[in-house]
Amino acid sequence: STTSTTSTTSTTSTTSSFLMRNAHLFIGNSPGRRQNHQRSATVTRVSRGSSRGSRGDKPGDPFHAMANELMALPEDSSIDSISSVLQKEEMLKDPKSLTKLLNHLGRWRAASVCVRVLEWAEAAGVALNVYHYSSVLSILGKCGRWEEALQLFNTMKVQGVAPNRVTYNTLISACGRGKNIERAMWVYKQMGLAGVSPDTTTFNTLLSACKQAGEGEYSTARS
After folding, report:
1. Structural contact between residues 155 and 183, judged by C-beta atoms closer than 8 angstroms
2. How far apart are the first and last CA of the chain?
3. 114 and 102 Cβ atoms separated by less than 8 Å
4. What is the pTM of this model?
5. What dihedral do alpha carbons 95, 100, 102, 103 form, nearest 10°?
6. Which residues have C-beta within 8 Å of that of residue 200, sequence separation ≥ 6?
7. SS3 breakdown of the chain: % helix, strand, coil, rounded to 5?
8. Residue 82 to residues 35, 73, 141: CA-CA distances in angstroms?
9. What DSSP designation does 83 have?
10. What are the average pLDDT values for consecutive 10-residue runs of the chain, which has 223 residues?
11. Coil, strand or helix at 79
């Protein structure tokens, strides 16, 4: 028990010091923060505009129809069941089309279905890319399934798909939702080892992970 308490205290102290050293990236009105805020505002405007324009849930939308059919399957459906829905859709052999389907499923937080679709796509010879993996990592994280997200992260690397900044930020967020700050920090270290530079979002996500893990009360006194 003493060892566990010591380890937790050490992790908290290390994380606190780390965040304080990089506070300029997410505290106050630093240039980095202003620049990120401007980017976020731009993304929000584009997102809202595209949402109004597409309304991806139209009855005639083939991806919506496929997503509905997949959602109707039992949660523990086999790859064969998934294949019976998707194999007739030749357009899914196009990586961009697969991304659209995953996005539809992601809006419904259908994590298990997304994972199955990804398995089907790999078996069907679809050229999976970082966007496919990052999409599924995101939905796993939002559903609190951070351990599966870590497993998928390892799988994508084994498959030769290099994670990008969005991938790492998404995985840090997933670990934060799971209240596992140690894993979140591990992902951050892996990011550095891979030569991927962190950004404002990275540090904000780490800070959020600390708060969700109950370690969000930082002060200059503790640093």
Report:
1. no
2. 25
3. yes
4. 0.72
5. 140
6. 25, 26, 32, 33, 35, 36
7. 70, 0, 30
8. 43, 8, 22
9. H
10. 50 59 48 44 35 47 89 85 79 84 92 93 91 97 96 96 98 96 96 97 95 59 38
11. helix
